[in-house]
Amino acid sequence: MSELNSIALKIISNGKGILAADESTATMSKRLEAVNVPSTPENRLSFRQTLFSSSSMSDCIGGVILYDETIKQRLLNKKNVPELITSVNSVPGIKVDTGAKILANSPNEKITEGLDGLRDRLKEYYKLGARFTKWRGVYNITKEHPSKLAIHSNAHALARYSALVQECNMVPIVEPEVLMDGNHSAQDCLIKTTEVIKRCFEELILHKIDLTGVILKPNMILAGTDSGKKIPGKEVAKLTIECLKNSVPSEVPGIAFLSGGQAEVEATENLNLINKENKTNFIMTYSYGRALQQSALKYWSKNLNDIEGTQKVFNHRAKMNTLAAKSEWSKELEN
Predict the structure, then answer these.
(1) Which of 45, 50, 135, 270 holds its CA 20 to 30 A away from the CA of 230?
(2) From the candidates 16, 95, 109, 175, which is the catalytic residue?
């Protein structure tokens, strides 16, 4: 077993999932302002520290994706954030792309940037304690999209990123997100997502990536939010597994789904159904941002000093998702 493979397995084994706490300062400011909390570096750290020191961290959260600001912040006891995460037996990770920009010659699509200077940034993040990284490519579905250009360009960037990350002894999370926005059917989503993921792995193989040291972070197969054709959870599970069986090489240890705008309980229920259906060798778990944090954030915003109450709300969501990752969740447990 390679060192990269053992890091990947530590993050996603035994029902553990990933807390995506890598919102940029701009995104985090929007989230805080939406619940009437001023977005200061202190408040951003305070909320995240509340989550990272919750009791569910050691049982449920195998890895935490951080943002550049957060990985460099220090707590009152002078420890840095990665040290806090490591102390609860979770693995610190870092988002390393610099965001999606308009793709030249395809103005309705995006390409993710951040390869310039990445090798040096990775060395710095490794020194700070990061052992895995994340890069998100983003695709939209319309009659013309995603175009071959967007599929190829983003796959190429994800592969170049992964090569630099593994060179630095870290595990790359490869996140090709086909967005839920739009009026496409679940069948359209299945076809396009399969094409996107296949292309990503063709590029990863071309770039000599050790696939046993990679975690895939894909979307689930859903109908577009404007389609009015919401499909039942069992269908989501069936189509999602079909997609992954047809596009992901067997060497990849696991898949950590993004929630992609699903409501908290919906994201948990769909993960549970996927694991009930899962006859593959892939570990299938979660890498959720809002679907792990939203209720905790709302609760915390009412009283920033109620750490215990906020942690209780977060612990519940983390526990529910870990049960879903083991296909042991049920609706009754939500109450």
Answers:
(1) 135
(2) 175
